[in-house]
Amino acid sequence: MLVAAILCLLLVLLLAGMPLVFAMGAVSAVYVYFAHIDLGLLAQRSTASLDSFLILAIPFFYLAGELMNACRLTDRIVDLSKAIVGHIHGGLAQVNIFASMIFSGMSGSATADATALGSVLIPAMKREGYPAPFSAAVTVASSMVGPIIPPSVALVIYGTLANVSIGRLLLAGVAPGLVIIAAQMVFTYFVARARKFPRYTRATLPELGVAVWRGGPAILFPVIIVGGILLGIFSPTEAAAVAVLYGLILGVLYRNVSARTFWKTIETVAIGTARILLIIAVASTFSWIMVREKVPHTVATAISTVSTEPIVVLAIILAMLVLVGLLMVASSAEIVLTPLLVPVVVQFGIDPVHFGILMVFTLIIGGGTPPVGILMFIAQDIAKISHGQMVRAMLPYYVPLFGALAILAIFPQITLFLPRLVFGS
């Protein structure tokens, strides 16, 4: 009864508009008080969750992404993408999708992707005759690969809360990211052919060489991170530090990161990191409460009444996550649900690394669905269209998104191949 009461209280507080961290902290304090547990346990549990070397990866990856954004590599990424895929049917739409794959290897954020690339590519697509709603929909869908391809703060947070190897998670995101991008590019190819959208002439070898030379630094960013981990040169946390150094070097070489810009970047990262770490600390206490009350066991028992087949269990959980994504911001939902669901999937023999990729991607799809849909609001504002137009334009793109999700769910080997190759089974 007590756990049911605090879960209801949490829901009420969230619906009332209270920030997640304060809502979770409040219900945790209520539980500890009524369960007659020493209140000092709240501080003990919270601080213990942050006493980890892996936690350092969060501010480092965050800072590296901000530094790369400060280097203003967006135009170079677009030119490189245009040289590689601009000749495919759909032209600039294909460039939008491919550029998101490269940009996600810098920012690790769907909102950063939608904002930075959308502000450049949506107006460009409109000028070339693409309908504004279609341009916005492509931007929203392509940006969803942001938290999947490393570096990814979302995966670091998941790994911290689920006690799963960060290195495995980062490597696990590479192949699924390519699957998500491929599904969207194939879908866009057929849409573009049917609607006779324009495309560019194929780039000559010299033009391709120039584009690679100018955009190469952006490609090297994820390559350094993944390659360093693959070769055993550095750990995930050390990789994040190396990424920061790389961003600083680019800022010096391009001479577009001044001392003022660097200091503002540090401020942004400090505030953002403090917010993330505070939420993790509070979520760890909340997680301990859920485990103490055997909530994951109860959830697993309820699901087992339907089926004990891992793929069916996974389908049920993913369907639930889709519904949650409609109502909650992805980051908040991830922090609340990770401690509850990871013990459940492990009990049914589902690899937690595989589940982490699926969970993050499923929740981020919520960023492109109403009523929350923060990615939709970003894109529709840039495209200057109504919310109704944005929703209607997004409907076709749920086909490649959920298609990619189904492929990744059915074939876990896609996700687990690289982690098992490097770290073993």
How is this structure best described in words?
The chain has 425 residues and is an all-alpha fold. The protein has one domain. 78% of the residues lie in helices and 0% in strands. The protein is built from 22 helices and no strands. The chain has helices at 2-15, 20-34, 40-49, 57-70, 74-85, 92-107, 110-127, 132-143, 153-162, 166-172, 174-195, 205-230, 236-254, 259-292, 295-304, 310-327, 330-347, 352-365, 374-383, 387-394, 398-410, 412-423. Helix 6 runs antiparallel to helix 11, helix 9 packs across helix 17 (330-347) and helix 18 packs antiparallel against helix 21. The chain starts with a helix and ends with a helix. The mean pLDDT is 84.
In short:
The chain is mostly helical. It is built from 22 helices and no strands.
Question: Main traits of this protein?
Answer:
single chain, 78% helix, 0% strand, mainly alpha, 425 residues
Blueprint of the fold:
Layout: H1 2-15, H2 20-34, H3 40-49, H4 57-70, H5 74-85, H6 92-107, H7 110-127, H8 132-143, H9 153-162, H10 166-172, H11 174-195, H12 205-230, H13 236-254, H14 259-292, H15 295-304, H16 310-327, H17 330-347, H18 352-365, H19 374-383, H20 387-394, H21 398-410, H22 412-423
Helix pairs in contact: 1-2, 2-14, 3-14, 4-13, 4-14, 5-6, 5-12, 6-7, 6-8, 6-11, 6-12, 7-8, 7-19, 8-19, 8-20, 9-17, 9-18, 10-22, 11-21, 12-13, 14-17, 15-17, 16-17, 16-18, 17-18, 18-21, 19-20
